Amino acid sequence: MPNKFNAERRHHIPKMRHFVRNWPEYESGLRNRGSLTFWLTPQAMQLWPAQARSTPGGQSIYSNQAIQTSLMLRLVFGQALRQTEGLMRSIFQLLKIDLKAPDHTTLSRRSMTLKALPRQCALPAGPLHLLIDSTGLKLFGAGEWLQKKHGQKSRRSWRKLHLAVDASTGHIEASVLTGQDVDDPSQVGPLLDQIEHEVASVTAEGL
User: Fold this and answer.
1) Same domain for 143 and 99?
2) Hey, which residues does 160 pair with through a beta bridge?
3) Rg of the chain, C-alpha, whole Å
4) Is residue 24 in a domain?
5) Helical residues (DSSP H) of the chain, grouped into ranges
């Protein structure tokens, strides 16, 4: 039931107000929410290159800590692997640190072997088997409860969310939001353009 029912006979409760008395500190705190600080300790710089291995096999260039740091930044900023490589390079240039950033192929290969890596950062092992489908999203605007109360009908607004999901893990690999008049086959290309991993098969209704 709406809060304004029998509003004339209800006791009026004034809205609470909060007065900001330390406005400079309050405004500074709001600005600091968008600030970005990134630093590398001397210990982290020493552990960036991989330690020499005593067992037979190829020698890794980057340590597990370097791979995990890069993939965590990828998760925070929602970037692709190539963009993450460029981000790490630019950070080292701005900090004037003589370190190399792992390339995107190394990040993809090493992420499959790190056991301590969060699940959100892990990349699929092997080629992807994609499932592509779409769903309708209804947009609710202001005054929706008034329409139900008075029986007024208005034209509803809809959107379509197109998703590409990994069949083995259920992770959403790509997404596109379009209008309701856009057909599903036309969005297969834009979805595949967002995926850098190797794709083995694509399954979608109508293809």
Assistant:
1) no
2) 136, 178
3) 26
4) no
5) 23-32, 42-46, 64-77, 81-95, 104-110, 144-150, 188-193
